[in-house]
Amino acid sequence: MPAASSHQDAPLGTSDQSAMSVSQLTAQIKGVVEESFTSVWVAGEVSNFARPQSGHCYLTLKDDKAQIRAVIWRGTASKFPFKLADGVELVCHGHLDLYAPRGSYQLVIDQAHPQGVGALELALRQLKEKLAAEGLFDPQRKRPLPRFPRRIGFVTSPTGAAIRDFLEVLRRRWAGIEVLVIPARVQGDGAAEEIAAGIRMANQLDPPLDVLVVGRGGGSLEDLWAFNEEPVVRAIAASNIPTVSAVGHEIDVSLSDLAADVRALTPSEAAERVVPSSDEVIAQLTRFGDRLHNSIRRQVTLGKQRIDSLAARRVFANPHTSVLDRARRVDELDARARRAVTSITTNNRHQLATLSGKLESLSPLAVLSRGYSVTQHAESGRVVRSSDDVAVGDRLVTRLEHGQVTSTIDSVDE
């Protein structure tokens, strides 16, 4: 009974022996998918982007109605000149692959470029934003070039037209400049590394350079791409020498132009920026000489006029008159001084006589002249004013108008 029931539950026309395993079915699907889609182009927006330490890139390509998982193996991803990120619109080439352990298919990408913009343009834009955020293009970092450099370095191809044009303009504008050419490839694989190494070597020279020029002649964006690569831009920004970027492309601005202290449109213009024109300097010196000469002449003329004006004054025209005037003034002051001294002396004499009369009237000697006398103890000189001031035997001295008398007390009568 159980066997009959199990047989009745099975679908018609099938048996356990005829059923495929999951692996077998997946293998058939894998063969069909991979053989049918060996080369496809797919456009979509990147989402769920991830790049683990293995270096492989895992992402999802999507549009508004569907999505497909995709992978870019490390060897392929390292060749992309732009940076992958969520939101980037890509046009991808690859083949479909079915991953059996999960039973899911994915697109294995071997080529990709941004949709609506070239890969180089996108890479340039991304690197520019990155370096700008680090401050490598800040105008405050820019340094002025020396007015009269003596040693100039040029990192470029020694066989290119750039160095020939530079030297030609340099010789025409200013002689006696020492130019050191630091050879480097300016195009192709490895050019960026050689240019960056040349910049670093220029900064190690002794005696040091006054100015460093980095550049080449014109070309397409691809030809000039080495001057947009990160090693070159960072080397220019790190240079201790004032640097001129002379990438011969007048329309587009390279990242080297933004990092350098001065941008020149061509190597010829770089020579014009680096050294002054000898003709212009001579003309300027001539103008300065004329201005100096005219200024000196004006100062001499003004000085002469001032001297003439001073010479016309009375003190210089007839100096003896001034001396006589001052001598007369001295005599007048002397006479006034003498009169003042005489007047003061006379007044003082009158005052002295008056005071002498007053003093004489108050003097004790004047009292003696009227018959009075003054008696004093002979030893102490104490004036005797009362009989109590003396005793029998005391010696006294009596001062008279004329002379004095010495006496001894025989008795005291109160």
UniProtKB/TrEMBL annotation:
Domain spans labelled Exonuclease VII large subunit C-terminal: 136-355
Gene Ontology cellular component terms for the protein in this record: cytoplasm; exodeoxyribonuclease VII complex
EC number: 3.1.11.6
Main location as per UniProt: cytoplasm
GO biological process: DNA catabolic process
Protein localization: Cytoplasm
Molecular function GO labels: exodeoxyribonuclease VII activity; nucleic acid binding
Keywords, in A-Z order: Cytoplasm, Exonuclease, Hydrolase, Nuclease
Pfam family, one: Exonuc_VII_L
Domain OB-fold nucleic acid binding: 20-111
Superkingdom of this protein's organism: Bacteria
Family the entry assigns: Belongs to the XseA family.
Subunit structure of this chain's protein: Heterooligomer composed of large and small subunits.
Purpose of the protein: Bidirectionally degrades single-stranded DNA into large acid-insoluble oligonucleotides, which are then degraded further into small acid-soluble oligonucleotides.
Record-given protein name: Exodeoxyribonuclease 7 large subunit
Species of provenance: Aeoliella mucimassa
Source taxonomy: Bacteria, Pseudomonadati, Planctomycetota, Planctomycetia, Pirellulales
Designated gene of the protein: xseA
